[in-house]
Amino acid sequence: MTAPTLIFAWGNPSRGDDALGPRFIERVEALQLPGVQCLTDFQLQVEHALDLQDRRRVLFVDASVNALAPFEVNTIAPAQDATFTTHAMSPQAILQVFRDLQAEEPPPAWLMAIRGSTFELGEPLSASAEAHLDAAVAWAAGWIKAAPKRKRRSPR
Amino acid sequence: MSFALETAPNTENLRRVAIEPLSRVEGHGKVTLLLDDDNHVHQVRLHIVEFRGFERFIQGRPYWEVPVMVQRLCGICPVSHHLAASKAMDMMLGVTLTPTAEKLRRLMHYGQILQSHALHFFHLASPDLLFGFGSDVAKRNIVGVIAAAPETAKQGVLLRKYGQEVIRMTAGKRVHGTGAVPGGVNKALSRDERDLLLKDIYQIVGWSRDAVHLVRNLFEKNLAEYNAFGRFRANGMCLVSASGAMDLYHGGLRGRNADGRILFDHFDYSRYWDVIAEDVKPWSYMKFPYFSAMGADDGWYRVGPLTRVTSCDSIPTPLADRARTDFLAYDNGSAAGATLGYHWARMIEMLHAAETIKDLLHDDDIVGTDLMAAAGDRLDRGVGVIEAPRGTLIHHYRVNDDDEVTRANLIVSTTHNNQAMNEAIRKVAMQYLDGQEITEGLLNHIEVAIRAFDPCLSCATHALGRMPLEVEIVSPDGTPRDRLVRDANGRCQRT
């Protein structure tokens, strides 16, 4: 059975604070909370739209050089992001691809941007990123437990 | 020597246009153009981030960690690095793989070829090909493709998904898999997994064949433009099997000159440096490889789908071989020499990958459990070469008696294609931009030429907020004169 809550984080584990996404997934998986599936990849790609199927809600997680510390969380909606690159397909664009491919509305989605500062190859997480990660995981634990009871599906 | 348009003889009174970063290529790249006041092109250069940092990153690591670590070099084709490193360590250990191990690695590799080629064609290239190189940037993307051709777009997504599933089942995980290890593989394919993949493979073969037809139709509709677009003559290099057929996993090196004459054949890649040398340019971080027997000026070459399809003697799966014959014969072979012929060749390879996956799944060795071979005579170095989606990938390691990597040399597909990509954009700059007022649509022609090669600039860092496209026009003294910005929604504005 598909877990109702999907948490999808991305980043390169070997590039300093770019590892915030994959490290976030490791930490949340360790909580062993029911009803949650955690997925990670180097980048968001077009086929990840298929991972949204039959979800009740989705949390996208990435490192950010622009977010306020320790992290920001915002609801996001499908968007025709015309600057598609495989390097950085946006979560809004993933939602749009889901809408166009499946002919239905995507699940409600949030984007968590965890503040990072250094992205050099071979570097560990910076001390500030470690602290931001702790705060982000604590917030996510509460967000997961506050999951709505009923599945939301609204046909187009 | 400097190639035509590589270095302007006199840069006074020329203005500089930079396309940075390139969109819809993997990683970060930049193109700079020097134009005079009448917009005539005097210099064009492609700049790409180099990989030397990655090589240092590997030094000092135990050799058995390397096939897993190198996947982090590139978020786009981690499987290619994983397998090239594994092959290098096999050589270092003196190992001959068991039949099951080699077939599982091949299955993983052809899964990677399938998903990578599907992503490139449907997601990156098709917006330009379906809507036109200078069409409305708001439509020229995958969302536009989904709106205009939803079934085609969906097939692209599902082809890629299928390739990812092949990788997951052979590597153990969707990303950061550990399937290949020095001496073999560490995960068998269960019969249930085999049956699951078999269920959809005929559909995958069918869609791949449709994709070959789609790109042929695009050529037929735009023959004159496609044939002329960024066209140039080049030497080529790829692996071929002992029979001269296409083999993307293993073989000997074959080099041909621009006339198709074979320069070297079935060359043992463990001594690749006997046929390849690398030139450096003061303006580029990336080296310029060339056939050493021909010298740097004449010996540069290209790699990847177009070279592989035209250089091999045949393709060992029937549908792809038939498609290759049609491609070579089309319009007296004109498409086989066109830069945009890369797209057609890439779809032929995708069809070959789908057929190969089908054949491997029907081979009972694929569900065998004899996964590891005994080590033979240990060497102090290993070389692994594979035909990655974008072209020949070379991994070369030295390992000391403490099993630590002391030296690593990686020559990736995009480095092999460095001079060829520069040639392509110089041709396009002269064909489309020379004397014209620069617009986003015209600049996209440069990117279309680069995207034909599917370069992997492989940075794999992509934190939010770092994705602008800026075109700056500056005076020779560095004073900004004009600036074109493409924002996150694809809108171009002069600022």
Would you kindly provide a brief summary of this structure?
The complex is a heterodimer of chains A (156) and B (495). Chain A has 156 residues and is of the alpha/beta class.
Structural features, described:
The complex is a heterodimer of chains A (156) and B (495). By secondary structure, chain A is an alpha/beta fold. Helix content of chain A is 27%, strand content 21%. Chain A has helices spanning 20-30, 91-102, 127-145, and strands spanning 5-10, 36-41, 57-64, 71-76, 109-115. A five-stranded mixed beta sheet of chain A has the order 2-1-3-5-4. In chain A, helix 1 (20-30) links the parallel strand 1 and strand 2 (36-41). The longest helix of chain A has 19 residues, at 127-145. The two termini of chain A are 24 Å apart. Residues 21-27, 458-471 and 486-491 of chain B have low confidence and may be disordered. In chain B, the strands form five sheets. Chain B has a six-stranded antiparallel beta sheet with strand order 3-2-1-15-16-17, covered by helices on one side. A four-stranded mixed beta sheet of chain B has the order 8-7-6-11. Chain B has a three-stranded antiparallel beta sheet with strand order 12-13-14. With 495 residues, chain B is of the alpha+beta class. Chains A and B meet through strand 2, strand 3 and helix 2 of A and helix 1, helix 4, helix 5 and helix 6 of B.
